[in-house]
Amino acid sequence: MEETISLKELFNTLKKRMAMIITITLLAVSISALVSYFLITPVYQSTTQLLVNQEQTEQPNLNVSDIQANLQLINTYNVIIKSARILDKVSDEMDGQFTAGQLNEKITVQTERDSQVVNLSVQDPDPYVAADIANKTAAVFQEDVVGLMSVDNVNVLTPAVVTPSQSPVSPQPFLNMAIALVVGLMVGVGVAFLLEYLDNTIKTEQDIEKTLDLPILGVIGQITDLPSGDISPGRSQATEVRSERYGS
After folding, report:
1. What is the structure's pLDDT at 2?
2. Which of 31, 95, 154, 162 minimizes the number of CB atoms within 10 Å of its CB?
3. Rounded to the nearest 5°, which phi and psi values hold at 49?
4. 3-state secondary structure the chain
5. pLDDT band at 201 (very low <50, low <70, confident <90, very high)
6. How confident is the model at residue 197 (pLDDT cuts 50, 70, 90)?
7. Which residues are in the Polysaccharide chain length determinant N-terminal domain (predicted)?
């Protein structure tokens, strides 16, 4: 016999386990809020923008080949910025507060699409330290690239600054709580259907048909308790009927 599940059965399952689903969802959101606000250290980000332009020559105007050459150099510059040669000098300027390896983990270099602008971003629990690292790294690279590449085509477009209303980039409590809400709801629904699947007790006549694969001939209704005064007549009547049937 092929089993089918109706939408009504699904709805009844969710309705029956609704308290459990809500509890699991609220628990997930509460844990996410607790971790986001109290356990995870906020991390701030500061960004310095570098402009890679043409080498300073006597030519008054830019041409397409100069721009293309600068764009090709950007990928090389991205590697040089995070190299040990640059970061060791940055570490020295910061009095050894961070090693070159630690600075490498904090620094992210990205290129604006189809542009000659390089974003040098630094993440740190202290926003002022993040801005200091970004600015010092940009300054060291701008000075050192002249000797490395024999060109002077890097300028600081926008230095990193700390604003009074600067917010951390992580964690993001509302986003984490929204994700926890969805995950908690999915887990709650999944547990509800799992418990319903594992529940093999017989509760209705439909369960008998499904379990035994037999048709139902009749249903005995629920018998309520009768007042004590009505029990004796019923028993007497039943006794008289039995006596007449058997001739006693």
Report:
1. 47
2. 95
3. -100, 130
4. CCCCCCHHHHHHHHHHCHHHHHHHHHHHHHHHHHHHHHHCCCEEEEEEEEEECCCCCCCCCCCHHHHHHHHHHHHHHHHHHCCHHHHHHHHHHCCCCCCHHHHHHHEEEEECCCCCEEEEEEEECCHHHHHHHHHHHHHHHHHHHHHHHCCCCEEEEECCCCCCCCCCCECCHHHHHHHHHHHHHHHHHHHHHHHHHHCCCCCCHHHHHHHHCCCCCCCCCCCCCCCHHHHHHHHHHHHHHHHHHHCC
5. confident
6. confident
7. 3-93
Half-sphere exposure of 11 (CA within 13 A, CB side): 3
CATH class of 44-158: alpha beta
The whole-model pTM stands at 0.68
95: left (phi over 0), alpha (psi -120 to 50) or beta: left
Would you state the structure tokens that stand for residue 105, as one six-digit string? 């983990």
